[in-house]
Write a structure and sequence with these properties.
This protein has one domain. The protein contains 3 helices and no strands. The protein has helices spanning 6-15, 21-32, 35-52. Residues 1-21 are annotated as: Disordered.
Length: 53
């Protein structure tokens, strides 16, 4: 997976698929960022998802 910038790449990937950007962002984040930062990014992702929705 090429998810070095999870939020940006996740959003772009999902524009054509109709899936939730937050889900893809979380997956990319878990693959590319150390576990200590995952919870922080998940919270940021959820907030971004709520704002977008």
């Amino acid at each position: 997976m090429r998810c070095k910038s999870p939020v940006g790449s996740g959003a772009k990937l999902n524009k054509g698929t109709g899936t939730s950007p937050t889900l893809t962002n979380t997956v990319c984040i878990e693959v590319s960022i150390p576990p200590t930062k995952v919870s922080h990014w998940k919270r940021a992702s959820e907030k971004a998802g709520e704002t977008a929705a």
